[in-house]
Amino acid sequence: MSTRLRTVVFPVAGLGTRFLPATKVVPKEMLPLMDRPLIQWAADEAVAAGADTLVFVVNRNKRAINDHFDTAFELEQRLERGGKQSLLKIVRETLPAHVKPVFVLQPEAHGLGHAVLCARPAVGEGPFGVILPDDFILNRTGPGALAQMAAVQAREGGSVIAVEPVDWKDTARYGIVSGDEVSECLMRLSGIVEKPRPDVAPSNLGVVGRYVLDKRIFDLLERTQRGAGGEIQLTDAIATLLGEQPVYAYRFQGTRYDCGSKLGYVQATIRLALEDPEIGSELRASLPSLTQR
Ligand code: UTP
Fold first, then answer.
1. Domain assignments of the chain as residue spans, ordered by start
2. 8 A C-beta contact, residue 206 and residue 171
């Protein structure tokens, strides 16, 4: 049953309207958390989970993501001439040598499900991962969220989606799941609904941006009609998938920050900055003066 997770898909063709005007020219995924863009944190998590093919589903305005993982010839030459070896290493190793980036165009933003479907020709054998880079998950005590999910999939088979308890008042912002508990952090799904109001939500377990999916999902996405917001929803295809084969909801170890929202983005930045060996203690010392205003 165990298959290595080789391909991870990054649907990054959304418009990023919540960060305008910052995202008018700069893709949301290029916004930095400390010194690394969101897309770099996500790529690192995929590589740590064993992936060797990273499929970026982009639109025409996301050229910077392509450039980020490409060779920066002039910059590298300068750093090399200046003897700046450690910076050169950082610039060169946005991806390890054995990892291949692939760029796929989503011509129009028809939704997350449609973006995943666009990746189909680039996805190899076996189950594949999906990471939404604006859901940043930090786990300082063990493997990253996607590596945890790959291990669950290798053990249980089927598909695995990441969930966490959300505030009941916020259920209408998430896909919400229901099902039967397999263990403390694992549930076999019996249902999934996109953005239900709190009074009709089957639970407060919300889907967050990590999935390990069986390739059957592509056939189902082909047939999925436009759902909530006129978009092709990944949730709707997963709802059909769970009628055919096991789909598990997994409560990952780690803390998630919704970096698609201003609050989550700032919280993640503050957390990383406070833990940073270079600036952490100075920042901590300056916090009282920042909060007294
Ligand atoms: P969001 O709902 O966060 O939308 O998409 P968004 O456009 O990125 O941001 P806002 O809400 O306008 O600020 C969830 C994920 O799905 C991708 C996005 O890039 C993001 O990673 N997505 C969404 C696509 O790739 N294509 C789409 O058509 C829609």
1. 7-278
2. yes
* Residue 1 predicted with pLDDT over 80: no
Ligand 1 centroid to Cα of residue 35, in Å, is 23
Whether 109 lines ligand 1, by a CB cut-off of 6 Å, is yes
User: Pairing state of beta strands 100-105 and 36-37?
Assistant: unpaired
d(CA 46, CA 50) in angstroms, rounded, equals 7
| Residue 229 Cβ contacting ligand 1 at under 6 Å | no
0.70 cut: is pTM over it? yes
Q: Report how far ligand 1's centroid is from the alpha carbon of 15 (Å).
A: 6
Q: Any idea which fold 7-278 has? A: Spore Coat Polysaccharide Biosynthesis Protein SpsA; Chain A (3.90.550)
**pLDDT-derived band of residue 3, with 50, 70 and 90 as boundaries?**
low
Closest atom of ligand 1 to CA, residue 108: 28
For ligand 1, mutation pick of 12, 57, 112 (most atoms within 8 Å of CB): 112
Q: Which long-range contacts (CB under 8 A, 24 or more apart) does 149-155 make?
A: 149/49, 149/210, 149/211, 149/212, 149/250, 149/252, 150/4, 150/5, 150/49, 150/50, 150/212, 152/186, 152/212, 152/248, 152/250, 153/5, 153/127, 153/212, 154/1, 154/2, 154/3, 154/4, 155/1, 155/2
CB-facing half-sphere around the CA of 10: CA atoms within 13 A: 30
- pLDDT of 229: 79
pLDDT tens, position by position, 41-73? 999 999 999 999 999 999 998 999 999 998 888
Write the DSSP string, 185-244.
TEEEEEEEEES--TTT-S-SEEEEEEEEE-THHHHHHHHPPP-GGGS--HHHHHHHHTTT
Q: Is the CB of 134 under 6 A from ligand 1?
A: yes
What lies within 8 Å, CB to CB, of 63 at 6+ separation is none
